[in-house]
Design goal:
By secondary structure, the protein is α/β, with parallel strands linked by helices. The protein has helices spanning about 25-40, 45-60, 65-75, 80-100, 135-145, 160-175, 190-195, 210-220, 245-255, 275-290, 310-325, 355-360, 375-380, 395-405, 440-445, 460-465; strands at about 5-10, 15-20, 105-110, 115-120, 125-130, 150-155, 180-185, 200-205, 225-230, 235-240, 265-270, 325-330, 345-350, 365-370, 385, 390-395, 410-415, 430, 435, 445-455. It folds into 2 domains: about 5-230 and about 430-450, Aldehyde Dehydrogenase, Chain A, domain 1; about 235-415, Aldehyde Dehydrogenase, Chain A, domain 2, CATH 3.40.309.10. It is globular and about 70 Å long. The termini are far apart. The structure holds NADP nicotinamide-adenine-dinucleotide phosphate. NADP nicotinamide-adenine-dinucleotide phosphate binds next to helix 8.
Length: about 475
């Protein structure tokens, strides 16, 4: 049995310890989730909305406590943790209100007297989740999955066990059937056999590309649906006609929110040469003004990183890039003392062979690269193995739209910052994964898209005969 620890990143204090679940406890959780699914699938969508709205209310009522749990467990500033809970509540209401429309039968004219497409639940879905948005990542999967009639097993990241148990508590208190969500407190590798269990019908992962490859392999062997939301190295393109004030201000938020630990954080700043110096100056000033410190202080804008190993990995990427010629404009090292803090950092004169450009940087480090023109920006944007999000800043919207369609990423935001929104689909291409979360696309990932055909066949029956 392994011990799963909750360690406060700002103080390095162990706050809680849990024994990991035994194989028997995991088997019990699968059985409970499957039993809950068998009844939940028969509940009309309108009735599923009742506990979903209750969950939204409960999240809002308890948001101070829940936000504190997030901040003490993974270190994000309390203001961001509160906003995360609000977003979860909004998303629960959104799916409670719209699931019936998203999953309504679709009549189709074919060769039948009547034919239609129905959307039926799949069953128990295993959700393997990361620590960086410990409530949001879970709720954005869970709200649509539950509204579609599925049950869930949650394997949360090992550094956020209290968040995992708190979400389970919230779901139970909101009035969902017992067992519909069960948390598995186990280390990553121990959840692998769960994917092969016949009652588990699909798996969704938000995490690193390496873990995604492993889960896809296991899901492939078991012939199961998988949705993968993996890493990203989003470009933030600033063209010569951009409004540099808002661009630099948004760049700061897009890179340093959550101490840079976001898959859709802007990571590579590609700036057209004529405005590169001006943008760098504005960006550097905004970064220097960031308030780093105790994440429980509402004035704090940048907290510690969530784990020591993540901070060390980031430090290696910065040091190596500096050795290769990157210029440190702001920050550039770990902060001394307790807590896994890293100085908000701006590196300029970055080149394509440096780790801060060709690897994902999961922390408060911005890499700025001057580019000749929009074509070079697009080439470098697409040179990444990732393809999650991208931002373009320009006053020429027609040009931006044309550029957007040449960028290989799941989303492109023009004059704005890449963000998830339950009303818009979210996901990536290339090494950033496949499948979509949120919007009507997300709720249709974990359903059986079922064709229903009612005879007799009508004439002419050309389509059916062709088979
Ligand atoms: P990670 O190591 O891949 O962990 C993510 C989850 O996978 C954790 O619950 C982890 O459990 C579990 N896991 C690890 N190995 C596993 C295995 N062999 N089988 C099954 N589960 C396993 O990711 P991380 O490094 O902590 O998180 C940061 C990464 O996630 C970044 O690359 C980031 O870009 C990505 N991310 C992507 C999105 C998105 O929406 N696209 C959002 C957030 C983060 P343990 O904690 O027990 O190891």
């Amino acid at each position: 049995m392994t011990t799963i620890e909750s360690v406060e990143p700002a103080t390095e204090t162990v706050r809680a310890r849990f024994d990991s679940h035994s194989a028997a406890a995991v088997a019990d959780a699968i059985a409970q989730a499957d039993a809950a699914f068998q009844t939940w699938r028969t509940v009309p969508i309108a009735d599923r909305a009742v506990p979903m709205h209750a969950l939204a209310r409960l999240l809002r009522d308890r948001k101070d406590r829940y936000a504190r749990t997030i901040t003490t467990e993974m270190g994000k500033p309390i203001t961001e943790a509160l906003a995360e809970i609000e977003k979860c509540a909004f998303t629960c209401d959104f799916y409670a209100d719209h699931a019936a429309a998203f999953l309504a039968d679709e009549p189709v004219v074919a060769n039948a007297r009547e034919s239609l497409v129905a959307f039926e639940p799949l069953g128990v879905v295993l959700a393997v989740m990361p620590w960086n948005y410990p409530f949001w990542q879970v709720i954005r999967f869970l709200a649509p999955a539950f509204m579609a009639g599925n049950a869930a097993l949650l394997k949360h990241a090992s550094n956020v066990p209290q968040c995992a148990l708190t979400i389970e508590e919230a779901v139970r208190d909101a009035g969902f059937p017992a067992g519909l969500l069960r948390t598995l407190l186990v280390p990553g590798a121990d959840v692998e056999p769960v994917i092969a269990d016949a009652r588990v019908r699909a798996v969704t992962l938000t995490g690193s590309t390496a873990t995604g490859a492993r889960i896809a392999e296991l899901a492939g062997r078991a012939v199961k649906k998988a949705v993968l939301e993996l890493g990203g190295s989003d470009p933030f393109i600033v063209l010569r006609d951009a409004d540099l004030g808002p661009a630099a201000e948004t760049a700061t938020k897009a890179r340093f929110q959550n101490a840079g630990q976001s898959c859709i954080a802007a990571k590579r700043f590609l700036v057209e040469a004529p405005v590169a110096a001006d943008f760098e100056r504005r960006f550097a000033d905004a970064i220097r003004a960031l308030r780093v410190g105790d994440p429980l202080d509402p004035a704090t804008q940048v907290g510690p990183l969530a784990r020591e190993d993540l901070r060390d990995a980031l430090d290696r990427q910065v040091r190596q890039s500096v050795r290769m010629g990157a210029r440190v404009v702001v920050g550039g090292s770990k902060r001394e003392g307790k807590g896994w803090f890293y100085e908000p950092t701006l590196l300029a004169d970055v080149t394509e062979d440096m780790p801060v450009l060709n690897e994902e940087t999961f922390g408060p480090v911005a890499a700025v690269l001057s580019v000749r023109d929009a074509d070079e920006a697009v080439r470098i944007a697409n040179s990444s193995p990732y393809g999650l999000g991208a931002a373009i800043w320009t006053s020429d919207i027609a040009a931006a739209l044309a550029i957007a369609r040449r960028i290989e990423s799941g989303s492109v935001f023009i004059n704005g910052m890449v963000a998830s929104d339950p009303r818009l689909p979210f996901g990536g291409v290339k090494q950033s994964g496949y499948g979509r979360e949120l919007s009507h696309f997300g709720i249709r990932e974990f359903v059986n898209i079922q064709t229903i055909w009612i005879g007799p066949a009508q004439q002419p029956a050309k389509v059916a005969n062709a088979e």
